[in-house]
Amino acid sequence: MKKALLLIVLLLFAAGCANTRNAGNSSPEGAKAQMQQRGPKPIPDPLEPVNRVFFVFNDKLYFWVLKPVAQGYSAIVPKIARRGVENFFSNLGMPIRAVNCLLQGDISGTGIELGRFGVNTTVGVLGFGEVATGWGLKMQKEDFGQTLGFYGMPPLLYLVWPVLGSSSVRGTIGKIADGYLYPPNYVDYLPLYDKLNYISLHIGDYEGIKEDALDPYVAIRNGYHQHRQHLIRDGK
Amino acid sequence: MRRYTKHVVVGILVIVAFSAFLLALRAGEENKEKEKKKEMKSPEEIVKDTTEEVLNVLRDPELKKEKKTEERRQKVREAVEDVFDWRAIAQRALARHWRPRTEEERKEFVSLFQSLVEKTYLRRIEEHADAEIVYEGQEVEDGYASVNAVGKAKDGTEVPIVYRLHQATKDKDEEEAAEWLIYDVKVEGVSLINNYRSQFNDIIVGGSYKKLIKLLKKKVKK
Lengths: 236, 222
What we know:
The complex is a heterodimer of chains A (236) and B (222).
Chain A: H1 2-18, H2 31-36, H3 48-76, H4 79-92, H5 94-103, H6 107-122, H7 144-150, E1 158-161, E2 165-168, H8 169-179, H9 190-201, H10 205-212, H11 216-232
Antiparallel strand pairs in A: 1-2
Helix pairs in contact in A: 3-9, 4-9, 5-6, 7-8, 7-11
Chain B: H1 2-40, H2 43-59, H3 61-64, H4 69-81, H5 86-94, H6 103-127, E1 132-141, E2 144-152, E3 158-168, E4 179-187, E5 190-191, H7 192-206, H8 209-221
Antiparallel strand pairs in B: 1-2, 2-3, 3-4, 4-5
Helix pairs in contact in B: 2-4, 5-6, 5-7, 6-8, 7-8
């Protein structure tokens, strides 16, 4: 059932976006044109009032619950171990990356991901160690939201989900599809632990963004959008 | 004998004067070469040298002491001051709201925004003083350039950074040669100017320019 659903979602969007591929994201060529472009168009945000409510909710959730819990966890588990756990989860994200490389026609990317998985799972001991990067096999940051963007689908709307945070219509569809390819999602509470471990390694990031911003909501909306567009262009 | 001495003295004087003249000439040329070199510094060299200077200040054990925080910040500020085109940065960040501003308002805005960016930049770089920065080349075209770099933290995380520069004169009234100046920094694809532009626009459209200045002042003071 789950597989069938994934297939339907995939086909729908592959078909729907195929024609817009060239009309969409036509990034101007040449260094000068690139330099003068002022970045992506702002992401539409008609749901801003609702999004802002969830933004405040997530903010409080972070400072009142997630951060203190993550700090307690950090006090017990040393950083090296937490890095290992992060590597372990990241290694299990291989299917998402490999499949989405393939969907974007990047066969060598899929090969690199498979190679990374082989190396990190064996030499890296179940993925706790990240050896592959040192061997020249760099992680291919791909996901289904990027695949949709690659075929010309715009993000449509900016969304802030409670707990999960910044996303878009495109990003949400991508996350749901990718969810089926992420093994930890099939084990109760494991994704929660993944998140806690992640937060413990990134305490201070959110605080920094908030500190630099005049309006943190707008700063994060813009940062989310720019970063996603950057990933879709594969950093180009 | 006396006559002979006189000749020698005059001869020596002539030689000394001539060598001095030659030396001066050479020194002058060397200076010129130095100036030329400074002018001809490539965008990548400018970014590299500035970052190196800042990191040296931050890594200086003498300046690391708690008491020296202000001195350290001042030194970093000095290193950074001349390589950023603050007016261009401010103008691009205000975008369509720049034109209606009077010259006085513009000057005030440039200085406020400069303080904010310096603060942001300083804190960020202080957090990552132990990172290694690897340069991956530059692209130059028609007075615009981008310098690509990767910040590598000790724990292995890599962050792509792109510096954008343009050739400009700092002060339009003065006749000086155009130099490479940084007008934007992109970290993981997020342009600093673009990010602030979206915030400024939102605040001005949803409130007013006055509100923006008030918020900026508050942020800088903190």
